[in-house]
Fold this protein.
Amino acid sequence: MGKEYKALDNLLIMREDGEIDKETFLRRKEIRETNIKVIKEKINELEERIKRSQAMDDKRRLANIENFFTKWEQTDSIELKNQFLRMIIDNIIYKRE
């Protein structure tokens, strides 16, 4: 998008310096503004996709946690409890001092 804004600025400079006529300026300006609009729409769409994806991940985690508590209470086996913990924990980061 920065490239489009820079091109738009260059068009304005070219028009001010008289390098291009008004019609050419307006035509090129419209093309650049359309490109900027398309890029902004794509960015908004991608942001929405990310939000939906994160919401689905949260729902999946919640279901895993609910499943974890149900299974945790049903067993005394250390091996099974470790497996259940792996259902809800991706990784553990610790700092050794």
Observations:
- The radius of gyration is 28 Å.
- The chain has three helices and no strands.
- The helical segments are 2-16, 22-73, 78-88.
